[in-house]
Amino acid sequence: MNLICLLQIVWRSILLGSCQAFGITVTSYCSTNYLSLGWYISVMSFFHFSEFVVTSVIRPQNLTSESFLLNHSKAYGIAALVSWVEYWTELWLFPGLKKSYWISGIGLFLCIGGEIVRKTAMLTAFHNFDHLIRTQREEHHQLVTGGIYSLCRHPSYVGWFYWSIGTQIMLCNPLCSVAYLIASWKFFNERVFEEEVTLLNFFGKEYVAYQSKVPTGLPFIHGYNIN
């Protein structure tokens, strides 16, 4: 790892650590009007930092500043920006909307549950997991069907799907809650289809048998069916 890459990791770590501390401070000491905002900041910073930490455990040879997933895609950044605009606009125009703490609690529950599911999936797959869809099978690459993968074929996506929606429910963002649901479903529908094409190429009949027994875990998403 060269110096530039190391510095990129350091400043991202400092940023996320500072955001985590700020989120906890907002939750603990600021007006209850900003309770959900404090939760949101903490949840977001923890997600991105934990992606890096878990990657450092399961695939240290692939560890880079990209492992934080902070710049996942332009669409991801735009979606985050839109959610912030909705939050502050509605807080200004309809402050009572942001005081539905039981709704925020449901969102927090989805985020925590989604985080647990995703990280469990990453640790279960271990070196077989990658943030990118592989187009070539590596020598050590095995089909993981045990643990959480015996319940659904794509638990890391399941976790991220519900985590994503949970962030908007937590902020009491009605518009973005619906928009995130639609956008996340569309993204994972395409992602699962594309990934299963490669998995069928890698594992053939073994993956077909796995498909027949275990669902994707995502609502109304079935993946690539060779039939």
TrEMBL record:
GO function term, MF aspect, one: protein C-terminal S-isoprenylcysteine carboxyl O-methyltransferase activity
Catalyzed reactions: [protein]-C-terminal S-[(2E,6E)-farnesyl]-L-cysteine + S-adenosyl-L-methionine = [protein]-C-terminal S-[(2E,6E)-farnesyl]-L-cysteine methyl ester + S-adenosyl-L-homocysteine
InterPro entries: ICMT_MeTrfase, PPMT_MeTrfase
Single biological process term from Gene Ontology: methylation
Signal peptide annotation: 1-21
The keyword NAD appears for this protein: no
Keywords for this protein: Endoplasmic reticulum, Membrane, Methyltransferase, S-adenosyl-L-methionine, Signal, Transferase, Transmembrane, Transmembrane helix
Family per record: Belongs to the class VI-like SAM-binding methyltransferase superfamily. Isoprenylcysteine carboxyl methyltransferase family.
Name of this protein: Protein-S-isoprenylcysteine O-methyltransferase
Species the sequence originates in: Daphnia magna
Gene: EOG090X0CFU
